[in-house]
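Notes to self, Sulfite oxidase:
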Amino acid sequence: MPGLIAPSDYSQEPLRHPCLRINAKEPFNAEPPRSTLISSYVTPVDFFYKRNHGPIPLVNDIERYFVSINGLIDNPKELFMKDIRMLPKYNVPATLQCAGNRRTAMSKTKTVKGVGWDVSALGNAVWGGAKLADVLELVGIPKYSYRTQKGGKHVEFVSIDRCKEEKGGPYKGSIPLSQASDPEADVLLAYEMNGETLNRDHGYPLRVVVPGVIGARSVKWIDSINIIAEECQGFFMQKDYKMFPPSVNWDNIDWSTRRPQMDFPVQCVICSLEDVDHIKPGKVTVSGYAVSGGGRGIERVDISVDGGKNWIEASRSQKVGVPYVADSPSSDKWAWVFFEVTLNVQRNTEIIAKAVDSAANVQPGTVEEIWNLRGILNTSWHRVQVRVGRSNI
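result:
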């Protein structure tokens, strides 16, 4: 997109909230304190995790900015922002989660490779924009399509972003055409976040949001959309973000034996307490978030204070004062769920949380059974240690 990107402006970093924990400066990666996450069902933009693979682009001529749609279609198009804004606008509450969320805890079992995320590499926002299914109709692809007449079965998103893993080329990823063309999948070309124009950190002027799927597929700063026959062959689809068993190491890894990770598994985290926390004896509120991929709801969140021998079910909500019901038409199916329970804690103990989704998927008990060399998808039971004393220390 010649003339639209100002290379000299890559170094001009956006302003960011001082509370963010910076996990990497170049490229910039940061997350908020865990307690901040449960202060609001819709995560404020300032507190939404920042995940980048290269310098943050700046589009400096929005009037000339366009997205080209090419590939295995009969009528390629260039869509300007005004064209996209003319399509019906949808607001979709959806949680985005980095596949590396909770990587730091996984690395304590055995070293892994990647940005050291704690538990806050996710956030829940209301994304505003056009449904990708409507955009694809503009180039002759009907809704609920599995393939195009020319054999296109996947939709590839190519970013303005440049990264070293692509040898200076653009970040890219893809999803199946069947998902992209399904209006019920709620895949968006988003230009708003929480009712405001996207900022640079989150993909200004246009990004893809793929609900229920690991954040790596929600490509920011869209440059082009390609209809292709096979999955995207980019680095982050073929040489990263794949789930390997604990037996695979960097000496015997064969990336071609695994498919790119898409949906994320069921997950929950205690956010009202730190990994090791000091409390007064008596009642303590245990609260946090739970979420599952693929639009699966949260059926249960269980809490244990005796190593998992006995469990107490926590209450769940998305709206204050309204009990959450998994798969209810009134529930936000792509969004996280908050849980809360009050316990009586009189002695030092470990508090454990695990969630069960609406398909009866449950979190694994230990990190060891899901350890993988890239440290992705740590969805093991979340554990915090509480030390009980007469006063806060």
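- Residues 212 and 293 are 4 Å apart (CA to CA).
- The longest helix spans residues 132-137.
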